[in-house]
Amino acid sequence: MPGDNPLFVSGNYADLDPALGAGNSGRVGGVGAGIEAGAEPAEAGTDLSGTVVTLYHGARYHLYLNKRFTDVRLVFAPEQQIAFFGGDTDNFEYPRFNLDVTFFRVYENDAPYKPEHHLSWSKQGAADGDLTFVIGHPGSTRRLYTMDHLRFRRDTELPWVLRRLYRREVQLEVFRARSDAQALMGMEDYFNVANNRKRTLRQYEGLLDPALWNAKQAQESRVRSALDTNPTLKAKFGSAWDDIARAQSEYRNFFRRWAVLNQDGAWGWSRLLIVARHVSRLADELPKPGPDRLREYRDSNLEALYHDLFADDPVHDALEIDRLASGLTLIADTLGAEDELVKKLFAGKSPRDRAVELVTGTRLKDPTERKRLVEGGAAAVNSAKDPMLAFFRILDPEARATRARYENSVEAVERESYAKVAGAWFDLMGDQVYPDATGTLRFAYGRIKGYTDPTPPEQGGEGVVPPFTTFAGLYQRAEQRRSQPPFDLPESWIKARTAIDPNVPFNFICTADIIGGNSGSPVVNKDGKVIGLIFDSNLHHLVSDFIYEPARARAVSVDARAIIEALTKVYGASSLVEELTR
C-alpha cells in the first residue's frame, strides 16, 4: 500500500504511511459517550471492564472489553548493568547489547492463570529479511497534525519542554552525586528524564529537518488540493485546518502558564504533590455525576487510580524535597517571582525551605491516611490541616482555570477539527490507512533489515549497520569502553563468558512501525512464534511521532535466542527455560 496512493509524497519519505488519528485524551462526548454508556451492559455478567477508544480522531469509536488482573508476581529480572548496558550513551542507538527483559506471572484466585490461547516460543529464531509482527500497545502518534500544529510544537512547546528536561537532568545529576543512597533513590527519576530528553530532542531535530518538514507540507498540500476538487468534501471538512491554526495561536498566549501549573514534570514528578492533587480533587469531583467530573475521576478510571494512590510505595524525603524545590524554582522562572500565585506558593520562604516544610510536615506519605481522607470526602480533606494539601489548594484554582481554558479553546477545537481532517482522509482513502496509536492493542509489521547511513563515518555517520548483534559484540563493547559504567558487566556475566556461545544473536532490528509504549511487545514470525521482545527504537525512529521514515527507522528487540542463552548459561534458570519453550 505505501507508495501506491496519489496522496503520498515523493522523495526520501516516499514510502511513508500517513497513519491517521490520535486517541482522544479529552472528554468523550456525542457518539463516544453513547458507546461508553453501552459498556455497562456489555460488561454485565462478565469480569470484563469497558473502555472507549477513539480512532481516526472521531471517524470511528470502538468499545474495548478487557480482563483486569491485580495479582502479578515477578519471576525473573536481570541486573541493571545488562538490562540497560550502555546507559544513556547507547539509549536509542544501534548496535545494542541489552538483555532488557522481565518475566511476570499472572495469578487468579491465588493460582497461576492459564489462558486458553497463548504464544509459543521460537527455538530457531529469525534471520535477515524475515517478516515480523509486533503485538503491543503503542502510546500515541501525531501523524495527522497540521503544519500549523507542528509549527506550534517546533517553535513553542518542544523548546520549553527541552529546557525543563535539561534543567531537571542536571539537578538530578547533582542530587545523585551527593551519596550512594541518593544515587540509588534518584536513579529512576534520572533515567526517565534522560530518556525523555533524548526522545524530545530527536523529535525537535526532526521538525527542524527540511526533508521531513517538506514531506509533511507536501502531504498536507495534496490532501487539501484533493478537497478543493470535491466541493462536497470541502464544505464538510475544509474549515478544519484554519480552525486548528486559530487554536494554536490562542494556545501560544497561555501555554507556559498552563504547562507549569498542570504538567507533573514541571514539579519534578513529585509523588507527594501528585497524591495531594488526587486526594484534594477526589473530594471535589466524586460528588458530581460521572460525566461532569474531570476525566481522570470518572468511574471507569477509579479502580486503577485507587490502586496507585493507596500503594505502599517508599517515599524518600530527600528526593521529594529536591523534586518540590525544583518545581518551585521552575514556576518562578516561568511566571516570574513577582507573580501573585508564585508569592502565595512560596509563602515567604526560599524554594528549598518551602519544600522542606511541605515534605516533612505532610502525613500523605502514609497510604492509610490517604485512604482515610478519600473515604472521608471534602469534610475530611478540609479539616486535615495538612501542609501539602493546603499548598495544592493554593495551586488548584488557577490550575483548573488554565486547564479549562485549554480544554475549551484548544482541545475541543482540535477534537472537532481533527475529526474533520481524519474524516477527509477517511473519505478519500477509507480504512486502508491505519489510525494513530491510542495505547490500545495493535499489530505492526516489518522485516528484519539493517540500514546504511549516508553520512560518512568520518563525519559521524554509522556506516553499514547489520540487523543483528551477538554476545561476542557485547564483550567487545565492554572491553572497548574499559568496563567503565555504564559499560560494566555484572559479575554473573563475567563468570559465564566462557560458557556462552559468542555467536548467538543478542539484539536485532526490524522495520516495524512502533512508538513509545511498545516496550515489552512480543515480536512474532509468520508462524506466530515469539522471536524477540521490543525494548527500544533507534534515533531515526523517534520522528515516527510525526511521520514514518522506513529508510533508517528501526525497532530494536532482544532476540529470543539470547534470552534462552542467558537464562541457561548465566542464570541457571532451566525451569523457566523449560516453561517458555515446551
Write the layout of secondary structure elements.
Blueprint: H1 31-37, H2 39-43, E1 48-55, E2 60-67, E3 71-76, H3 80-83, H4 87-90, E4 103-108, E5 111-112, E6 120-121, E7 131-136, H5 147-176, H6 180-185, H7 187-207, H8 210-228, H9 231-237, H10 240-252, H11 255-262, H12 271-285, H13 299-309, H14 317-335, H15 340-346, H16 351-361, H17 367-382, H18 387-429, E8 442-447, E9 451-452, E10 464-465, E11 468-470, H19 471-480, H20 491-495, E12 505-510, E13 522-524, E14 529-537, E15 555-559, H21 560-569, H22 574-581
Q: What characteristics describe this protein?
A:
582 residues, alpha+beta, Thrombin, subunit H, 2 domains, 8-stranded mixed sheet, 22 helices, globular, disordered N terminus
Helix content: 40-55%
Shape: globular
How many structural domains?
Answer: 2
Structural class: alpha+beta
What would your notes on this structure say?
With 582 residues, the chain is an alpha+beta fold. The longest helix has 43 residues, at 387-429. Helix 5 (147-176) runs parallel beside helix 10 (240-252), helix 10 runs antiparallel to helix 18 and helix 11 (255-262) crosses helix 18. Strand 4 (103-108) and strand 5 (111-112) form a beta hairpin. It contains 22 helices and 15 strands. It has helices at 31-37, 39-43, 80-83, 87-90, 147-176, 180-185, 187-207, 210-228, 231-237, 240-252, 255-262, 271-285, 299-309, 317-335, 340-346, 351-361, 367-382, 387-429, 471-480, 491-495, 560-569, 574-581, and strands at 48-55, 60-67, 71-76, 103-108, 111-112, 120-121, 131-136, 442-447, 451-452, 464-465, 468-470, 505-510, 522-524, 529-537, 555-559. Mean pLDDT is 90; it is low at 1-31. It has two domains: 71-142 and 439-581, Trypsin-like serine proteases (Thrombin, subunit H, Beta Barrel), CATH 2.40.10.10; 147-417, no CATH class. The strands form four sheets. Strands 6, 7, 8, 11, 12, 13, 14 and 15 form an eight-stranded mixed sheet that branches.
